[in-house]
Amino acid sequence: MPPRSQLWLLAALALAGVVSAFSGRLDSYVLDVAMGVGINIVLAVSLNLINGFTGQFSLGHAGFMAVGAYTSAMLTTTLGTKLGGSPALLQWVLFPASLLLGGLLAALAGLAVGAPSLRLKGDYLAIVTLGFGEIIKVVLQNVDAVGGARGLIGVPAYTDLFWTFGAAAVTVYAVWGLLNSAYGRGFLAVADDEVAAEAMGLDTTRYKITAFVVGSFFAGVAGGLYAHLKGYLNPGGFDFNKSIEIVVMVILGGMGRHVGVIIAAVLLGVLSETLRSFGDYRMIIYSLLLIVLMLTRPQGLFIWPLWKKKST
Amino acid sequence: MKPTFQLPRRGFLAVLATAIALATGCKPSGESGGGAAGTGTIKIGEFASLTGTEAAFGQSSHKGTQLAIEEINQSGGLLGRKLEHLTEDNRSTAGESATIVKKFISREKVVAVLGEVASGRSLEAGPICQAAGIPMVSPSSTNPKVTEIGDHVFRVCFIDPFQGKLLADFAKRTLKARKVAILSDVSAPYSVGLADFFRQRFIAEGGEVVVEQKYASKDKDFRAQLTAIKAAAPDAIFVPGYYTEAGLIVAQARQLGLAVPLFGGDGWEAPELIQIAGEALQGTYYSTHYSPEAKSTEVRSFVKAFQARFNGETPDAMAALGYDSAMVLADAIKRAGSTDGSKVRDALAATKDFPCVTGKTTLDASRNATKAAVIITVKDGKFSYLETVEP
Known about the structure:
The structure holds 2 protein chains of 2 kinds. Chain A is mostly helical. Chain A has one domain (4-238). Helix content of chain A is 72%, strand content 0%. Chain A has 12 helices and no strands. Chain A is globular and about 55 Å long. Chain A starts with a helix and ends in a 16-residue tail after the last helix. Chain B is of the alpha/beta class. Chain B has helices spanning 2-25, 55-74, 96-108, 119-132, 145-148, 160-173, 189-204, 223-231, 243-255, 271-277, 297-309, 317-336, 341-349, and strands at 42-48, 83-89, 112-114, 136-138, 153-155, 179-185, 208-215, 236-238, 262-264, 284-288, 354-356, 359-363, 369-370, 373-379, 382-389. In chain B, the strands form 3 sheets. In chain B, strands 7-6-8-9-10-14-15 form a 7-stranded mixed β-sheet, with helices on both faces. In chain B, helix 6 (160-173) packs across helix 7 (189-204) and helix 12 packs across helix 13 (341-349).
């Protein structure tokens, strides 16, 4: 990995900090959409590691997001009042700790789901992850301690531009760094031809599980950010449709492409809000746009250069 | 392969460019007009489930609100200013209401927020209104937690504890039931809450809940639960869910030969219920906020105006509550003599015996409405008024 990449990460973090410092000038609607976009990037890039680069098909990203969201929200709501302390202190110490814990628990869930099912080949993973996502949702609906179907109320609003775009930068850095390491080339080998990769002595199952666990970790972090952005969690928000939304970002951006997926995450986050002026026809136009985009650019929207076919 | 790995740098650029664009390009707009300035229109923001799973409720409620605001504007508006009604759809999904309400408050500078039917979405929007000091009036979110958010969140409907208690009394007195089965929707806060309050009251009154079964929204087959219920031989079955599932449950219960009465809460209230279950609804009951057949002058003039405005459609309870929410808010703005958030809030809190379509409404200390409820039964494929229950 070239040393310049660390510089890029630092620059991105610094910029997120600077922009965040001036975020008081923005109205809360723009901030909400911008942070939603940041969370989208974390989700899309982490799913891209699983679905794009490693060639697996996960439909349960919203489930891992839910694990992270509820874990971190429970931590800040229960510990936040007990610890006391100033809101700033809680936001800078407790909140990142809760994001990390949310990510770790999501990664653990990823390991639990991935370890048995990733030994399988083909479409089985899609079905297993789909099932997992639904199980998480139903479990959350039935656990009174986290509000059950009514939802979890009173999550403090700790998420700001710095945390969302900081997390987005770290996610991009981590996924990119992992893929560009000597070890990481194995992910692409698994995606290209699993049998050939195995013949070359790669432990393909291990690669798949690694991708899955790392992807789940960042999905959990994104969930934590989401919880502290919206201030309220409802299990219904982490259903199958949410997973599909993330899959759409990855496919639209071009499976296994870095920039395309990021642009798609930004585009879809902003698009559904800008289309509000169409009123009742909003979702029809949104869906039509997706159909047209997929028909005209099946290789992904943002493949560089734009006029060239996907080379791999 | 090489080009792929040069892309990440542009990836960072894309993130940065977006952040910059968002930070610099989108300055707050709409600072002129509206707000507390005293000129221009008075903006009211309504967030609603216009599409998605609760669209039937959302659309009804929206039409009622629309009618109320049009009527107010025709009679000259409020404080010498016209009302401007802004509506945004949240697709019946979690996450969107927060964004919409932030848009209303920071962009549009609304005076107050109206919404929502579903408690889950009101719980999401409420804290944002509370933090911004903007009053919010929910037309028909019945979960108790909604108004517990804070002193800026109100509702014009009765709440689940009242409805649960009322249904328990109804089951005991009118249905003469001693043994009741409950079939509730675990994925809906509304259903779980209503089941709890019903159970408490019914058992306290000497009744017995012989079996409790559960389902989740969007389920289609309830035969397993109904068979278990049939085995327990209850006198009546309580189904505190929404109309889609309730309709299917009623139809399947009759197919399985369960002839006992089925009853539910205001979640049953939708014309779709009859489309789904048809003849099977004979001998079913539900409690709701209002009946278009009631004789009061408010109800008659509302039904007439609604039918004239929306091609002869008969307004349901959600439409009546949507109408009432806007009317109660307008009355508060008029009494406050100001569009200032805290003054409107104080005026809302002081609402007493306001003549609503859904009955005389008083907002109590916990910002909930105390008012009468009606019991509706289904006769020959039509909703028919049975009785009014005072609080």
